[in-house]
Every structure is written in C-alpha cells, then in structure tokens.
Amino acid sequence: MGFELPLFYVFAAVAVVTSALVIGQRSPVYSVMLLIASFAALAGLYVLLDAPFVAVIQIIIYAGAILVLFLFVVMLLNAPKEAAPWERVAAGPRRAGAVLGVVLAGELAWALWHAALSREPAGGGQGMPAHAIDSVRAIGQVLYTDYAFAFEVTSLLILVAMVGAVVLAKRRV
Amino acid sequence: MVSLNHYLFLSAILFAIGTTGVFLRRNMITVLLSIEIMLNAANLTIVAFGRDWGAVDGQIIVFFVVTVAAAEAAVGLAIVIALFRLRESLDPDAFTSLKW
C-alpha cells in the first residue's frame, strides 16, 4: 500500500490548513464552510484508519447535521463581521492566548516525541478486522451488548438537550 | 503504513488550533466551532489508538462523543440565540454580568 502515506499527508494538510483558516477567518459563514472541508478531510483519515463507520458518521452527523445547524444559526442571526483580534482584544489576553496555544502544541509534540519513539506501527495482526463490513458489524455487536446501557442513556441525553434547546430559544416559557 | 505517531501529531496540531481559537476569537459561534475542532482532534486520537490496539471500542466511544457534540451544539446554539436576542451582539465580552 504505497499510496497510504501520501494520502495521509494530503488529508492532514487539508485538515490543518482549513482548521487554521476557520480560526483566521472573520466571517462566520466562511468559518463554517471551511470547517466542513476540514471534517471531510478527517473522514478521509478515518477511512485510512480502517474505520469506515466513523468516516460515514463524520460526514452525515458532523458535516450534515451539526455544521448545517451552525450555518443555519449564523444566517439566522445575521451577525456583523467580527473585528480583527488585534483591534478588538486587549494585548494581554491576546498574547496569553497565542502563548498558551504554542505552549500546548510544543508540550504535546515533546510528549509524543519522547514517549512513543520506539512504537512500531501495529496495524495488521492484532485482530482488527480489515474488511469494512466486518468492522461495522463488530461495532454493532459491541454497541448493543457491552455498551447497551450507555446507548440508552444517550437517548435520554438527546431528549434533555432537545427540551433544553426549546426552553432556551423560546421567548416566554 | 502510517504509524500511530503520525496521527497523534496531527491530532495535537488540530487540538492546539482549536485551543488557540477559543482564546483568540471574540465571536461565540467561532468559539463553538473551535470546540468542535478540539472534539474532532480527540476523536482522531481515539480512533488511531483503537486501530493500534486492535479493538472496536474506540469507534464506539467516538459514536458517543459525536452524540454529545450534537447535544452540545443544540444547547449551545440555543444559548447563543437567546443571548443575541438580549444584547444584539455575539461578542462574549458583552456578557460579563456573571463576572466578578
């Protein structure tokens, strides 16, 4: 599989660049659109990771439902374009944010560099079914047996979120 | 074969981008988008470790994370709409009544 590494770099580059542009973009509509592109690249990475189920829910639920909800709210509110951070944010918080972001990236990179140098790429051989159909089938079997309780609680969570959203968005309760 | 480290590095970069966005941006919707980036970086880590471990549980955890993210987006956007109705602004600095 010689094309796996180039594909990884292409998807990773798209994900990083679009995510950075989401942060750098001043118009919220463009931010949401770029985030959809970023999530599409992440779905490609999930396919490379032998997780087609996650790739599909990434596209359908994240890009299809959650981000369209964001887009809907952005267009509904008709928010004014945000002023540039260097005009708007005081110098102190702005520097703190930049420094914290860089520190976090450096810290994570250092930890990974030192902790996992000796790891061999595991991949095949450990029992992960490589075939897509088997993968989804295995997820279903584990989800509805071992994680059945968590799955049921999820429905309660969604009900609470739905009621909460309706109550919050109503003018008078 | 792409190693686990590749995915962990990418996830770290994405998470740092999301964190920087939360700190730098002054638009509540963009802050929520940055949180989504961070959630996705965590998801990527979980799936990469799951593949490395050879277990399917990582993908199930991602399923739950996506569900919680959907609930969070619904409630968070409802709060944003309510706040916008109150002050006609999306700037978090306009809502400092709870600050002391």
Please supply descriptive tags for the structure shown above.
heterodimer; A: 173 residues; mainly alpha; B: 100 residues; Helix Hairpins; 78% helix
Describe the global form of chain A: globular
- Count helical runs of chain A: 7
Please tell me the overall pLDDT of chain A.
82
Helix and strand sequence of chain B = HHH
The secondary structure category of chain A is mainly alpha
CATH topology of the largest domain in chain A: Four Helix Bundle (Hemerythrin (Met), subunit A)
Mean pLDDT of chain B: 88
Concise structural overview:
Chain A is mainly α and 173 residues long.
Folded structure, characterized:
The model of chain A is unreliable at 122-129 (pLDDT under 50). Chain A is globular. In chain A, 76% of the residues lie in helices and 0% in strands. Chain A has 173 residues and is mostly helical. Chain A contains seven helices and no strands. Chain B has 100 residues and is mostly helical. Chain B has one domain (4-91): Orthogonal Bundle (Helix Hairpins), CATH 1.10.287.3510. Chain B has helices at 4-24, 28-53, 57-87. In chain B, helix 1 (4-24) packs antiparallel against helix 2 and helix 2 (28-53) runs antiparallel to helix 3. The termini of chain B are far apart. The chains are: A mainly alpha (173), B mainly alpha (100).
